[in-house]
Amino acid sequence: RPTIAFVRLRDAVVLESALETPVPVRFIFILIGPTTTDMDYHECGRAMSALLADK
Question: N or C: which end of the chain has fewer CB within 10 A?
Answer without folding.
Answer: C
